[in-house]
Structure formats: structure tokens, C-alpha cells
Amino acid sequence: MTSITDKTLQDLEFNTVLQAISEICNTDIGKEKALQITPFRNKKDLMDALHQTSEYVSSFTNNNAIPNHGFETISNEIKFLAIEDSFLEVGSFRKIAAISDTVNVLLLFLKKFSDYYPTLSEKAATVELTKFISQKIDEIVDKYGEIKDNASPALVDIRRNMNMVRGKINQSFGMALSQYNGLGYLDDIKESIVENRRVLAVLAMYRRKVKGTILGNSKTGSITYIEPEATLRFSRELNNLEYEEKEEITRILKQLTNDIRPFLELLKTYQEFLSDIDVVAGKAKYANRINGILPNITEEKRLYFREAFHPILYLNNKKKNEVTFPQTIELTNESRIIVISGPNAGGKTISLKTVGLLQLMLQSGMLIPVHERSETFLFDRILTDIGDNQSIENHLSTYSYRLKNMNYFLKKCNAKTLFLIDEFGTGSDPELGGALAETFLEEFYHREAFGIITTHYSNLKILANELPYASNANMLFDEKSLEPMYKLILGQAGSSFTFEVAQKNGIPYGLINRAKKKIEGGKVRFDKTIATLQKERSKLEKTSQNLKEEETRAREESKKMENINSKIQDKLERYQELYDANQRLIYMGQKLDDISEKYFNNKNKKDLIGEFLKMVEIENSKRKKVTVKEKKAKEIIQKQIIQEVAVKVEEIREEKKEKKIKAIKQEANKPKPVLKLGDRVRMVDGKAIGTIDKIEKNKVTVNYGIFTSKVDLETLELVEAKK
């Protein structure tokens, strides 16, 4: 059973993460639910939530994207359905049909792709799939949210009669309009609309001559608006039909509400299911932003966060284009407590908060920004004491408040607790506060709790060194500039660099020496030793990094050399084979030449054939009988050699081509010299060289000795400038 207090959530800024997730959610209920996320109390529920988020993240990159699951809230509709004899408006039914369709599509999708989304499919399997709701509503309500004409037989008749009456109204009004317009009783506008009824625009002086009901006047009083008598009779009939239509629609809506009312609980489930999926989607989108993954969750008591980022810091730095430094932290049964020391502003508190917030996020069903090889187990409690803890409401000092907090720690601390304390022991007399802090630390240690604390107290550093299952750590500082490097180094305490930092900030040496004399020599020597060790550690870290880089480079070079050597060896063997074959052919050629010369001299065919057969037999005795398989293999090797040669030739050609193009580009990019009278020039694509006699704008006269030629300035290139 996980139990985490509101104070811990506040200390670790958990609400900032929830706020970010809430903003990503699409629905109002999803946004509210995201803000109410708390750590899970049950491990199965937690693992389901983590796998659901992880599966949703995978949908961003695979081809089976999860369908849209947005919806309009139907909370008011659910309230009305719960009230007997109440009925819903038409718009409400459209929202209910939409949510039902959305759920059905999602349920069918998750059933189809259960291999991709096993945990989400398992959740979907608990929700009933029914098309009755959508079908029932679609029978009555169209896609625009209007009641269909054929929703009931009575409504069909009423609307048919209404259309007929409207036709009669238009017909009678048209006749009256023509009649009175012909008599010249109407204004230029002829007609208007008053109280949603068509009226004649009668000139005031003729109003008594027009039969009908006066429905109003113009602002100036020059026009009287009259509904003709014949039209009025049909309008009353239309009013009666509209009343009947309204009554029939109410009856239909009541009937439809009663048909949907049995599905009240299912509609609640639908809304709950879709809002849960919305929160899962919000967590998945947030995980995508922070590069969150699901690390291995083990039963073994080990917390190992490799290359862990603080998500809030990471996103803030990303906006500012600044670097965020990851930390690697490990807590095991053999190293349960880490005491981080060193100067302020080195990143101690961030390291502390990173571990706490990531563990909290993970236990709340969120993915976290760590390396995939990371792993952790689940804590029953996470206790924190971080930041300014002065309680204004209770009028307690910082130290009193912290003591009260420590008392709570002592009551709750056990082997499944993670405690995180920033600036442990501060707020009181250094010696007395340090002694009490040491006692608390021993108590937490003996209870086998896991924890990280930050401190400046030497006695806590010494204690961490003495306890077998506790260890020191420090935030790495540059030994020359004393600038923080934001890297946590386990296994060694950190110096506060008090005097070094003071010296760097221009405090006079005299004052620093006086301060040194005021404290115990042992303390100074201890701090100085730690500072020296830390500097050495920093140097070793850099050297180690350089050596690793050199080793990697050497390994790569060695691999390259091996490949080159192998290729050269292979080529040598092939050339040797080729050389041997050529030598054999040369020998056979010489032998054949000798036989030919002998035959030329003695013309003895028998000797010729005998010599020739002898030579062939000798050659055949050297040959091995080659199988079809070996022949094919030999042919393949020959083809490979030919292909390699062809590729190499092509590479050389491409290289030459590139060089040529590069040379042309370089030539083109060279600033062109300004040509003057007397310069020796030639055409860009020609060989004959001449001298410039005359330059007129862009035209140049070139003298070639025997003849002159007039050409464009752009077509010439300089051979030799006039001396």
C-alpha cells in the first residue's frame, strides 16, 4: 500500500507535471482527471496504467494509430436521465449518439489490434459494445440535430398539412399583393416581415381600404403593415398545426428518452472510459516530450536511474535552448543511503529532486526520462524535507518545523521507504544540529530505509564513510574555475570550497587567513584534503574520458587497417593466380613455336602430331577435373573480379568528373580580370590569340595580325596583360 503525503507532492513539484499533462488532454473531464492523478496504491492497477501509457506511446510510431476518442461532455444529460419523467432536448441526443459511436469505433479497433495494445484492449473488454443507442437516436434525429419528418406517423401528417397551409398562405398573400399593388395602395417596398409573418407595406392614407389585420407601422408612420384577411385565416391554421407539431415532438422526445434511459449506467461507463483514455493519451504525449520510457520494475530492492533528467528542468531548458545535464544514481541494499556534499549551486538539490520526482511519476503511472537499462522497485512511502520549511501558519522556526518533520519520518520510516532530505541538520547550532542529524541518519540506516541527503556537515560525511551500506557523493566542480559541472560522482565526499570560493570572489587573503585560524585545524585540513581529492577526481575524470575516446578511435583505426590488409591480401592472391596462368600460356606459346619451326624444316607430320599430343597430355596431367559446381564458383569469382574492376573504373571516372566540375566552378567563381587596351586575349572556346584595339561598351575589337574581329566582352579571356 503506497502512502505519499501532500507535502511530498508539493516538495517535488508534482503538480507542475500534472498541470502540463492536463493542458495536453482534449476533454474537460480528462483535464480534471489529470489534475487529480496520485500515486497508485495497488501494484496491478499501477502496472496496467504504465503499460497503457507505454502502448499509447507506441501508437505514435506504428501504422495502426489509435482512433479519435474526443467527446462532448454528457454529464448534464446523465443527470436528466436519472430523473424520472424528464426528457432530453434534441441536441442532447446528438451528443449521446456521438459518444456512443466514438466508443464503438474504439472498442472494435482495440479488439482488432489486441496484439499491439494488449492492456488497452483488456480495459476496453470491460465496456459493453452496443449499436442500439446510435440506431435508436438516428431513427428520430438527423445529423443536423433536427427531428426527422418520419419520426412518427402523426408528425408526418402534421408536417404535410403545414406545408400545404404554407403554400396557401403564399398563394393568398401573392393575390392580395397583386391586387393592392395594382390599385397603387402599396409603398415601393411592397412587403415586409413582422412577427415572423409576411405583411403588405400599405401607404398610411390607404390603410382603411385594405382588408386585414394591422401588425405595426414604420418609424415615420408613412407605412402601415397589414396582414391580408385571406392570409390571416391560413396563418391561424398554421399556428394550430405548429402547436400540434410541438406537442408531437415533445411526445417523441419523451418516448426516445424512455428508450435511452435503461442505458444510463452504460453512458456513464462510456464517458468514464473515454475520459480515462484521454488521460492516458495526455500522459503519452507528455512522455513523448520528455523522452519518457518504462524502465524495468523489479522485486529486488534496487533503484538504478541511468542518465536521468529532471522533466520540468528539461522542458524549461529546451524552451531556452539550454543544456540539461543527466544524472546516474544507484541505491541498493549494499548502498542504501547517499550523502551528497559540496558547494551550493552545484546541482545537489536538483539531483535529489530528480530521483524523488521520477519515482513519484512512475508510481503514478507515468513514463520517465531515463536510459532504457534503468530499473527500480516500488516504495511504500516517499518522505521529503526540501526547500524553505518555515511554517508561518504555526509560527514555527525553520529548525522547529524540521524537527517536527523528522519526528514524522521516525514514525513512518521502514525498509520500503525512500527519504529525501535537503540541507540535513541546518537551522540550529552547527555542532548540536550536526550531532542530532547524525543520530537521525543512524536511525534511518538501521531501519534499512533508502535515502539521499545533501549536507555541508563534516560529521555526516564521515559517518557515511564509516557505515558499510552508506556512501558519500559530490557534485563535480572544475578545479581551476570552480564552476559547477553538474555531474554527480558517487563514492567520495565533496568539499564546500568555502575558502576557495571566497578567494575567487575577491575576499582579501588576510581575512581568509584570520577565518582559518578561528576554526579547528583538523576541520580545515579535512576540508582541504577533500578539496584536493575532489580536484584529483576531476582530473582523473577528464583523463579517463580522454583515454576512452582514444581507445575508441584506436579500435576503429585497427578495424579499418584489418579490412584494408584483408583486401590487399586477397588482391595479391588473385594477381599471383593471374600471373601463374599467364606464365603457363607464354610457355605453351613458346613450345608451340618450337614445334612449328621443326615442322617447317622437316615437314614431318607424324613428328608434329606426336609432339603436339605429348604437349597436350603433359598439360592435361596438370589439370584437375573440375566439377560443374566448382566451374560455376570459378565463373562467379571471375564475374566478381570484373564487377569490382568496373566499379573501381566508374569510381575513378566519377572522381575525375567531380574534379573537373569543381575546377570549372572554381574558375567561374574567380573574379574576372578587367580587360584593357593592348591586353592579349583569346575567345573562351578558341585558340587564336589577339590584341585589344578598341573597347566600346560591351563590344571589343581584337586584332589577330592578318584580320580584326568585333566580339562580345564576355566571350574573351585574358592571356597576358599589357606591360
TrEMBL record:
Positions of region (Disordered): 540-560
Gene Ontology biological process terms, A to Z: mismatch repair; negative regulation of DNA recombination
All residue ranges annotated as the DNA mismatch repair proteins mutS family domain in the record: 335-520
Coiled coil stretches, renumbered: 642-669
Gene3D superfamilies for this protein: P-loop containing nucleotide triphosphate hydrolases
SUPFAM superfamilies named in the record: DNA repair protein MutS, domain III, P-loop containing nucleoside triphosphate hydrolases
Keywords: ATP-binding, Coiled coil, DNA-binding, Nucleotide-binding
Protein name: DNA mismatch repair protein MutS2
Domain DNA mismatch repair protein MutS core: 12-316
Top-rank taxon, per record: Bacteria
GO terms, molecular function: ATP binding; ATP hydrolysis activity; ATP-dependent DNA damage sensor activity; endonuclease activity; mismatched DNA binding
Cited InterPro entries: DNA_mismatch_repair_MutS_C, DNA_mismatch_repair_MutS_core, DNA_mismatch_repair_MutS_sf, MutS, MutS2, P-loop_NTPase
Pfam families cross-referenced by the UniProt entry: MutS_V
